[in-house]
Amino acid sequence: MEELTAMPITAGIDVGSLSAEAVVYSPERGIITYSIVPTGANSRRAAERALSEALAKNGNSLKFGDLDYIVATGYGRISVDFANKAVTEITCHAKGASFLRPGVKTVIDIGGQDSKVITLDGRGKVTDFVMNDKCAAGTGRFLEVMASALEVNLTDLASLSRKAAESVPISSMCTVFAESEVVSLIAEGTPPENIIRGLHDSIAKRVAGMAGRLNIGEPFAMTGGVAKNAGVVDSLKKILKADIFVPPEPQIAGALGAALLASEMIQ
Question: What is the number of structural domains in the chain?
């Protein structure tokens, strides 16, 4: 315990629309622990729970009082009143992605209800970004609704997509209209895997359209919960004609970036 408290330890908390993540970090040990919890109806409570679970996963050898600095990010960052500072998620995702993939030039982040493309200078500094936070089109929530309409598990979308014989175009990216379109395709006897491939391609085209408004470049990295869907990643690789680095746990990039910034602030 003496060794743990002797070194600067920081935490980053990313409160998104669907999930909240906490990362505990130190320069000597890197990522010490992390957790991902549902946000629910109370952002502050979600932040508390995420941090408590992260600390508990470390065998209770760390307590809240051992943390030297906390940075909050995400759409619910203002509600995290126990944090020392709140920082925009654009900055935090860029910081986290640069740590996980040094030299990254373009970060694609697709979360629960928004998506963003961020360009960097290769040293972790944001040069530009574009964000869609007006609707759930092409986000994690969009995929949840489509999986429900298809009566398949969300985690099975990628494997089913890879079995598709063809990609069935989905003309609407509005969640409500796309769901109706999917239901109609099912009624017509269209194989579910072909519909899923079409959904993944539609999301990739939408993100590529956003990226086209920026001066993007390689290397690419993808963060956020949707990065866990290999079908979406495959479609993006095909459309962008580039490889895309996906971290082992892409959902914690924002919280990691917040923890890294917290470490810089106290040093």
Answer: 2
